[in-house]
Amino acid sequence: MSVWRMQAPHRTNSPYKGLHGVEEVSAKMRGVTLDLHTCGVFGAAQHLLAQRAFPAPSGDERLAFVRDRDRVVQSRAFRRLAGKTQVFTSRASDHFRSRLTHTMEVAQVARHVASALGLNEALAETLALVHDIGHPPFGHAGERALDRCLQSHGLRFDHNLHALRIVERFEQRYAGHRGLNLTLGTREGIIKHSRDYTSSAYPELSEYFLDQRPPLEAQIIDLADEIAYLTADLDDGVESGHLEIAHIRDHVAILQRCYDVVESAHPGCAEKYIFHDALQAMQKALTLDLIETTAKNVSKACASSLADIRAYPERMAVFSPQAESERMQEKRYLYDTLYTCSALELEHSKAEEVVTELFEFWVDEPSELPDGYIAEIESDGIARVVADYIAGMTDHFILLQYAEVRRSVRSGRVPMRSIAK
Questions:
Q1: Deepest in the core among 27, 121, 131, 302, taking most CB within 10 A?
Q2: What is the per-residue pLDDT across 126-183, written as a single tens digit (0 to 9) for each?
């Protein structure tokens, strides 16, 4: 019986009955094993992907990907995620997700999926924790503005590739090398978890097996990301007052189905509590669908090793057709009702203005950059260096920089070129 066709029972003591019960309807009963250990990053495959550019210190009993995870969590770039926008730039409520809390929620989902499928949980968790580390301030509005700025110089901004630059170059914490010295497997997952790259377009990435699919541990990250933000953005949307629960129920089928299940278990309960439990049930249903569909795809392809996963022409970690359809329905709903609502559009417009004006100012006045960035101009070019500087900022810090630059322009200390008085 499909996860997506289960009907809410008339009486139950569990708010998740009918969705939660999927665990009892094991995929093994349909001839599909959930244990994909032989397809995961273990054994010889783990040995290959555990390689680093520089030898790791000896005498440390941590596994390679556990060490990567710890280095990511202890990095400055990871800590800065606490000050970067997820959806709401203004932070009108302390309860809204930041880029950091979103990342932690993605890691929860990724660990669940990896554990259920017998994959390398440490690698999956590390990739979840590092997957958004390359995002600039102000969320997608900031990324769009930065990309447009770079396009005028014949360049592009890609947050996956910027994340790679962060872990390889910008995190300077160790005596023996630049960067975090992460494993090959983690670095491959950073750039390939959400999209594919070609050797012809990106020859500098040739060491990352560009003609092959990434391991399943990397493939599940983009979908764990989707599961986390589809749940969180509905929650924050209601918290903000921009979305109404009744309207969501009328337009998001999977949420309506989960809501009915919870409501039948708790008649008369306050709407906000039923909605919360419905969100949790929706997240669980999507997660279990990802687990089951991935296992089915591996079985159908007769894959029994990482080499088989890499050689397959498509990614195997996907949602079922019905789950994918409902995911897209909710994504369209969020775009139409939340991401493009007038209040957020105003925030996005201001964010893009700040990013654009600062980019143009520092391109025109490179001497105003910090010394460490000035030193990189000769090798990387002014446009890329300015983009690197901006991309590393938190929302709060970039606004401080914007105010400081405007004061300098008004005082006449620097000429007015890109910043309006």
A1: 131
A2: 999 999 999 999 999 999 999 999 999 999 999 999 999 999 999 988 888 999 999 9
**How many whole angstroms separate alpha carbon 121 and alpha carbon 116?**
9
Q: Which two tokens stand for residue 363?
A: 């391109």
Beta bridge partners of 98: 85
Residues whose CB is less than 8 angstroms from the CB of residue 341 and which lie 6 or more positions away in sequence, other chains included: 242
Architecture of domain 34-136+157-340: Orthogonal Bundle (1.10)
pLDDT digit string (tens) for 27-68? 443 555 678 999 999 999 999 999 999 988 877 888 999 999
Residue 98, SS3?
strand
Q: Rounded distance, CA 375 to CA 386, Å?
A: 12
d(CA 389, CA 377): 11
Distance, in Å, from the CA atom of 162 to the CA atom of 176, rounded to the nearest integer, reads: 22
Distance (Å, rounded) from C-alpha 275 to C-alpha 255? 9
pLDDT tens per residue across span 147-163: 999 999 999 999 999 99
CA distances from 400 to 191, 288, 407 (A): 31, 44, 11
DSSP at 84:
S
Whether 337 contacts 240, CB under 8 Å: no
In this prediction the pTM is 0.90
Mean pLDDT across 182-186: 97
Dist CA 370 CA 361 (whole Å):
14
Encode pLDDT of 321-345 as tens digits: 999 999 999 999 999 999 999 988 9
Q: Which residues of 324-351 are buried (b: 16+ CB within 10 A; e: fewer)?
A: eebbeebbebbeebbbeeeebeebbeeb
Which residues, at least 6 apart from 66, have a Cβ–Cβ distance to it below 8 Å? 122, 126
